[in-house]
Every structure is written in C-alpha cells, then in structure tokens.
Amino acid sequence: MNISEIAKLAGVSPSAVSRYLNSGYLSAEKKEAIRKVIEETGYRPLVQAQVLRTRKTKTIGVILPKIDSFSIGNVVAGIDSVLERKGFQILLADTHNCSEKELDYLDTFDDQRVDGVILIGTIFTPRHLALLRKSRVPVVLAGQQLDGFSCVCHDDYHAFYDITRLVLNKGCRRTGYIGALPQDKAVGQDRSRAYRDALQDAGLEPGPMAVADFTIASGRETAQSLWDAHGPLDALVCATDSMAVGALQFLKSRGIQVPQQVCLTGHGASNLCAVTTPTITTIRYFYEESGANAAALLLEQLKDPSLPAKEIKLGYTIVEQESTG
User: Fold this and answer.
1) Which strand (E) or helix (H) includes residue 74?
2) Minimal CA–CA distance to 310: which of 184, 145, 198, 196?
3) Exposure winner among 57, 119, 131, 308, fewest CB in 10 A?
4) In sequence order, what are the residues at sequence separation of 6 or more whose Cβ sits closer than 8 angstroms to the Cβ of residue 42?
5) What is the mean pLDDT for each group of 10 consecutive residues in the chain (325 residues)?
C-alpha cells in the first residue's frame, strides 16, 4: 500500500492523506474516512522515507539520571502524556547518575537522531554548557534552571525553608541536614541554602550538614556519620525521601525514637514515606505536571525556533506525617 492507494480507497486526494499522516488540518469527515481505510488495510508509513522527506523523526530524546526513581518515573509519564497525543515517541536514555554518559547522550541526540531533547535533573559542568549551547536541536530542562534555556523547575528554596521551619516550630534546636553535592543547583545548593537561612532567621547557628548519594544505603551511612560526629540531634532534614528512609533505618538501629527524640523529614512524597513506621513527613512536588510542561515547551520550540527561552516554576505542598509528631 502507498499514499495514492490509501487516497483512492478513502475517496480523498493523496495530499489529504499526507496531511493526515503529518497531523495537518483536515475536515472530520476526511479524517474518519482515511482512519478507517488505514485501520482496515493495516497501512504503516515507512518511517525512513518520512524522515528523509520532512527531516523530522517524530522522536524526542529524554535524558534522565535514574529510571527506577519515583520522581523521574512521574516526570516521564507527564512527558509521554503530552507527546503521545501529538504523534511523538520518546527515546529514554538512562545515565545511571553518570555525568559522562549524560554528555555522550547529549552528543548522540544532537546528531539529528531526534527532533528535540528533554534533560531531567542534572549537574551542569562546563562541558554540559558547551554541548547545550551548540546543540542543533532544541533542549528543554526539567527539574533544573539554567539561564538562556527553557526549563520547568521547582521552588526548592522555599520548600526547604518551610520544612525546616516546621521542625523548628516543633521545638527542635539541634538540627542536622543530609543533602546532595553542591554542584547540583536544585538539590545540592538551593535546598541546603534554605536550611541554613531558616536556622539563621530563627536566631540559630547553622546545624551540621553532610552529603549523601540518592540511595537508602547512603542515607543510612551518612546519618550515622553525622550522628557520630555531631549527635545527639533532635531533627534531621533530608534532601530526598530515600535519604530520609536510610536515616530512619539508622535511628532505629540505635534505638532512637522518631518523632519522640528526633523529628525526620524527606522530600518527594514517594510511596516509601507512606509505608515506613513511622510515616515520614515530606514535600510533594508536581512531577507529572513538570514533565507535561517540559514537553509543551519543547513542542512550542519545535513549532517556532525563534521563541525566547521560557521558565516555569511550580509550587509544592508539605505532607506532614508521623515522623514530625
């Protein structure tokens, strides 16, 4: 089957079939006639021919740090919900939190193998900036902010200021913080800065701080190191839910009661926080909405590459549970 034969069976012109296949404007009557013939014949357009003709792959590259993450999974779901309706497919590239793999994927996707790229939650090195600035396809960032690029980010600073104030309002005065590498602007910089500012605004000295990986095991080990060096503490504020779950495991191993002796908070509102004993107070971001907005921004840039960069900042909610009393 080819376009001309489809057109003849549907009683329309070949150009109408072409517009249908490329999501162009058609009357509802012609759309239905073409759809019915394609369904009955099982016709599938040759992708390679479409790419050569239109120079479009109808594929979006999504570079992500860790596929088995609650937050990342929801961001990807949001991306797919928008792109699928527009006839795009997504090509996932899991870097396993490896900066070198991230750079490799940026370079590969820039080689005209996708129409655009969505980059989720990353640390921007000089090499990242160089690749992003010379990219021949549009790039949208999700979860981070970078001047000159369209992005969807979260209000990390105020979220962590508020959750630190929450434990201070519970009477906690000897607080500790488990965060991420400072090279990570959102998770590493903004969240730790908010923690320090909340303490200073309350007239308190900044509490001890430590860096962990994005895993339960690392949260457990870091909590132990923090406790052994600075404990006992009466609150632990953690940059992610995984870190908080690890910290809870450590506290239980020492027989330290939560929240009676220590208040504990996480971030992400993942399912983990709802199944621990006690359940963990956390911060909910709107991850699926973040992905949907990132996809919409990318589609806008594909339609009009001259559009200026746009930044969307999403809100948050504090989910107070048993770990803070």
Assistant:
1) helix 70-83
2) 145
3) 308
4) none
5) 87 88 84 90 65 66 89 94 92 90 90 88 86 92 92 96 98 96 80 96 93 94 96 95 97 97 96 94 96 97 93 96 96
